[in-house]
Amino acid sequence: LENRYQSLMESDLDDIEKIYWLIEDCKRYGTLPFAGLARAAFIAVQLLGSMVKKGIISDMDYQNFMNDVDTVSSDMKYDFDTLSKDAFLQKYGHLRPGTYDITSLRYDEAPDLYFEWNRTARTGESGRTEERTKRFSLSIDQMHRLKDALDESGLNNDILGLMDFIRTVIGAREYGKFIFTRNLSRAMQMIGKIGDQYGLSREDCAHVDIQAVRRLYHSTKDIGETLQKSMQEGRKAYELAKTLVLPPLLVDADEVWHFCCPDSEPNFITMGKVRGEICVLDDADVTDITDRVVLIASADPGYDWIFSRRIGGFITMYGGANSHMAIRAGELGIPAVIGVGEKQYGVYKRARAVEIDAANRTVRVL
Question: Of 94, 144, 207, 324, which one is the catalytic site residue?
Answer without folding.
Answer: 324
